[in-house]
Amino acid sequence: QVQLVESGGGFVQPGGSLRLSCVASGRTLQSLSMGWFRQGPGREREIVGAIRWNSGSPYYANSVKGRFTISRDRAKNTMYLQMNNLQLEDTALYYCAATPRGIIFSELPRLSNYDSWGQGTQVTVSS
After folding, report:
1. CA dist 87 to 26, 52, 73, 101, 113, Å?
2. Is the pLDDT of residue 27 over 80?
3. Which of the chain's termini has less CB crowding within 10 Å, N or C?
């Protein structure tokens, strides 16, 4: 099973930026489909964005399209989430998730498709 460790969360004002990192161990990135999820106060965990093992275009939730970008550095076995123009509603605990199983694009948002989860990193957007 792959182990995932997130970092990069913090406190930021509206309009600011953060970059989250997710380091994977146990498997290489090219064998994993991976995603970023978040859970805000009083809310269910939801998809932020995801990418399949063979890359292709990432999936993004409508709420973050044009503001967030997923990328991967295979040499570092790390996935990133660049978050720009952060808004109050982006406040949440952000999780990295992964699975070695192939996932079709339309299934990337489904939480149950992911086998491994990190502990999460907190992002707080406040003025």
Report:
1. 34, 27, 27, 33, 28
2. no
3. C
How far, in Å, CA of 125 to CA of 31, rounded? 33
The DSSP symbol for 67 reads T
| Torsion angles phi and psi, residue 98, rounded to 5 | -150, 155
Contacts of 25 (CB under 8 A, 6+ apart): 2, 3, 5, 77
Write the DSSP symbol of residue 89.
Answer: G
Tokens in use for 55? 């890359």
Residue 19 confidence (pLDDT) above 80: yes
Q: Which residues pair with 96 in a beta bridge?
A: 36
Distance of CA 109 to the CA centre of its chain: 11
SS3 79: strand
The token pair at 80 is: 């990133």
